[in-house]
Amino acid sequence: MAATQTTKEKVKQTAQKLFRERGYAAVGMRELAKEVGIQAPSLYNHYKSKDDLLREICFDMAKQFFAAFDKAVTTEEKSQRKLKAVIKAHINVIATNLEASEVFFNEWMFLEQPHLGLFKKQRFEYEMKFREIIDKGIKKGDFKKMNSKLIAFAIFSALNATYELYRSNEKLSQEEIAEDISDLLLKGLKS
Amino acid sequence: MAATQTTKEKVKQTAQKLFRERGYAAVGMRELAKEVGIQAPSLYNHYKSKDDLLREICFDMAKQFFAAFDKAVTTEEKSQRKLKAVIKAHINVIATNLEASEVFFNEWMFLEQPHLGLFKKQRFEYEMKFREIIDKGIKKGDFKKMNSKLIAFAIFSALNATYELYRSNEKLSQEEIAEDISDLLLKGLKS
DNA sequence: TTCTTTTGCTAACAAACGTTAGTTTATGGC
DNA sequence: GCCATAAACTAACGTTTGTTAGCAAAAGAA
């Protein structure tokens, strides 16, 4: 185990770290290469371009979010429990991919077309999966009747910022964060 | 009224728009100048540097958040009403400065020292003012006993992302957004 | 061994970057 | 009308950008 990572893996990991710290546009290929321990042109043996790197980071994360959601959504039937399950799954993906998550949330806008368009589409689809659960919950009477778009948005905002929590406070466990956040939000939704 | 805006004002406004759309690092001075309708070096008649521009945008917003908070905090006594008042004030500042708010929230990291440090300090102070209200509310028994840091964070996340709501859905009024969001959060806090 | 693929290197390109210098034109006060 | 200041211009600076070309060393397969 703990197989020595390939250069390509090291490039990706270092890019995630630097993109997160200083922003995609502010990080140069020379700086990235230096951190990896090679020369800038050697990066192109592993990735076609700077954009190619960002693309892999962002779309790998997207894939993870979808997979975690789909796995979680099947385990529960009741609206509250179902919503709680996907909230926890979402937070779990963030927690286990801290750096990549931040790049995913904050740097996707630098993707070039046509990948930018595809990314936006996927993101929208994912958000709709969340909203469906809330809408159904409202319809079934499990949740209070309220503006679902607005509420779904508020929930999403809180979730998508949890990476800041992990970074700012090491004492909080993932369980604790997921539990408290979903409690707060679910209680607000109570009918 | 509607006084014709000075060139300096136009520069700032255009910078806000471009920085928001494409990110501070991705916007060049030539592009900014072109959008304003002047040549790049002419920008330096109004601002000392690119960083100077970002600084004015960010610190002007900071000033507005503080002023709105201080004005709102005096109007109410009860914890719930007080928290609701500052939430509304915060959302109101965002709503009336949509573009500058997004720059404030997403591009501050590109500030150079020493202003970056000052900015972080102010931001922390502002967040603490919010947390104080929550902590006092918990102590007085107005709010449920819970991890205040985590909860304060969740509230902040939802608030600070409201600009996305305004951008994505024009039908929602500012009143509606402020009312629904604070309702959701306050209900979750209920003891 | 020999051949092929991978992965690194140095040198260099064209373009874009923020900014400065020096000059001209427009504006407002006396 | 005269002078000072503000605000625009053109030209150019040195640096950094992402990337390509061409070549050398290492690794793996036959």
How would you characterize this protein structure?
Two copies of one chain form a homodimer. With 191 residues, chain A is an all-alpha fold. Chain A folds into two domains: 1-47, Orthogonal Bundle (Arc Repressor Mutant, subunit A), CATH 1.10.10.60; 57-189, Tetracycline Repressor, domain 2. Chain A is 72% helix and 0% strand. Chain A has nine helices and no strands. Chain A is elongated, with a radius of gyration of 19 Å. Chain A starts with 6 loop residues before the first helix and ends with a helix. The A-B interface holds A 22-23, 25-26, 106, 109-110, 146-147, 149-151, 153-154, 156-158, 160-161, 164-165, 169, 172, 176-177, 180-181, 183-190 and B 22-23, 25-26, 106, 109-110, 146-147, 149-151, 153-154, 156-158, 160-161, 164-165, 169, 172, 176-177, 180-181, 183-190. Chain A binds a DNA duplex (30 and 30 nucleotides) through residues 7, 28-30, 38-42, 44-46, 49-50.
Salient structural properties:
homodimer; 191 residues; mainly alpha; Arc Repressor Mutant, subunit A; Tetracycline Repressor, domain 2; 9 helices; 0% strand; DNA-binding
Query: Which class of the largest domain in chain A in CATH terms?
Result: Mainly Alpha
Instruction: Please count the beta strands of chain A (DSSP E, at least 2 residues each).
Output: 0
Shape of chain A: elongated
Number of helices of chain A: 9
CATH topology of the largest domain in chain A: Tetracycline Repressor, domain 2
Number of domains of chain A: 2
Q: What is the assigned CATH homologous superfamily of the largest domain in chain A?
A: Tetracycline Repressor, domain 2
**CATH architecture identity of the largest domain in chain A:** Orthogonal Bundle
Q: Low-confidence stretches of chain A at least 5 residues in length (pLDDT < 50)?
A: none
Q: Please estimate the helix content of chain A.
A: over 70%
